[in-house]
Every structure is written in structure tokens, then in C-alpha cells.
Amino acid sequence: LDSGIDYNHPDLKNSMWNNPYEENRLLQGKHGYNFVKNNDDPMDDNGHGTHVAGIIAAEANNNQGITGALLDQSNFKLMSLKIADEDCVTNDFRAISAYHYIYRAQQLGSNVIAVNNSWCGPYTEEDEVLEIVIDLVGEGPKGNGRGALSICSAGNDSQNTDSKSTNPACLN
After folding, report:
1. How far apart are the C-alpha atoms of 37 and 148, rounded to whole Å?
2. How far is Cα 87 from Cα 74, in angstroms, rounded to an integer?
3. Is there a contact between 40 and 79 (Cβ–Cβ < 8 Å)?
4. Residue 41: pLDDT band with limits 50, 70, 90
5. Whole-angstrom Cα distance, residue 139 to residue 115?
6. 3-state secondary structure the chain
7. Residue 117 pairs with which residues in a beta bridge?
8. pLDDT in tens, 134-170
9. Residue 136: CB partners within 8 Å, gap ≥ 6?
10. What angle is formed at CA 97 by the lines to CA 36 and CA 57, rounded to 5 degrees?
11. What is this structure's pTM?
12. Of 31, 55, 26, 162, nearest to 116 (Cα)?
């Protein structure tokens, strides 16, 4: 969940998730979904999401840029869920919608194992709902045992989150 991913980037294009449920319209978007414009194109127009995706999964030994932390890219794919606009501003409603998308992908059979949350914001009225959908994705759909770990950024502001809480990092 970020500002999208440049799915044409030479370091990332081979690691992009290709939605197997798009053709029969069970889940929209070839590589994910854009919750800012409510369409099926999660292209990054800020750069932050692509930057974070590169740290995680940039292709090794392709004479481009860097090598991501996951050296073996053959066993995973990146699902781009754009919740932040071109100014990297987001809200809980978009994050809740993105988690619902992930849960639906899990229900359909996608093995989503981790959700990267490199975004943060102040506590809002929607926090309880956000906690619920994060927990749902963490548990996975009933009976399939395929939950996903949510990894959350504590922010980039050098602030003590014990005195100034942010979400999703400070959610229960």
C-alpha cells in the first residue's frame, strides 16, 4: 500500500503480480488497483511506492539500478495497491479499501503473505475499521490458512510514536 508501483520499471517489471481473476472480472486490475482514482491502473505518479518496491524486490543481476532485499525473485510477486496520490497523501478509507482488495484476492486463492505499509497518518475515526481489516487479512479467509503479515512504517518524521501516535504502525 503506497503511491503505486511503476510496473514498467526494468528492475520491477518481472516481479509484478498478474491478476489471474481480472479476465472474469472477479477482481479488477492487471497488477493491482488505484484507490485514489478508483480505476484499475496503479501506476506510481510520486515515486515513493516504486522506491520502496525496489528496496524489497529490485531484480538481481540485470545491470539495472540495485538488487532488492529478496534475492530470489522467482517465488513472489508485487501487487500494486495505490492509496497515496501524487503528493503522497492518503487516508484510512483508501487503506481499508486496499485491505478489502487483498482479502478478496485471498478468498479467490492468491497466497498473499505480506502487506507493506510505507505510509502513515494521524489516528482517525476509521481506525477501528482499519484494525478489523488488517486482522482479517492477517488471519486469511476461513479454512485456507493463508494469512498475511502487515509490516508498517513508523514514519519519516523522527517523532516519538509513544507521544504522537500514527497509524497503521500504532494500531493494536
Report:
1. 26
2. 32
3. no
4. very high
5. 13
6. CECCCCCCCCCCHHHECCCCCCCCCCCCCCCEEECCCCECCCCCCCCHHHHHHHHHHCCCCCCCCCCCCCCCHHHCCECEEECCCCCCCCCHHHHHHHHHHHHHHHHHCCCCCEEEECCCECCCCCHHHHHHHHHHHHHCCCCCCCCCEEEECCCCCCCCCCCCCCECCCCC
7. 152
8. 999 999 998 667 899 999 988 767 778 777 778 888 8
9. 99, 103
10. 75
11. 0.93
12. 55
Q: Is-contact 49 36, C-beta < 8 A?
A: no
Q: 151: which 3 cell numbers? A: 509490516
- What grid cell was written down for 55? 528496496
Q: How far apart are CA 169 and CA 172, in angstroms?
A: 9
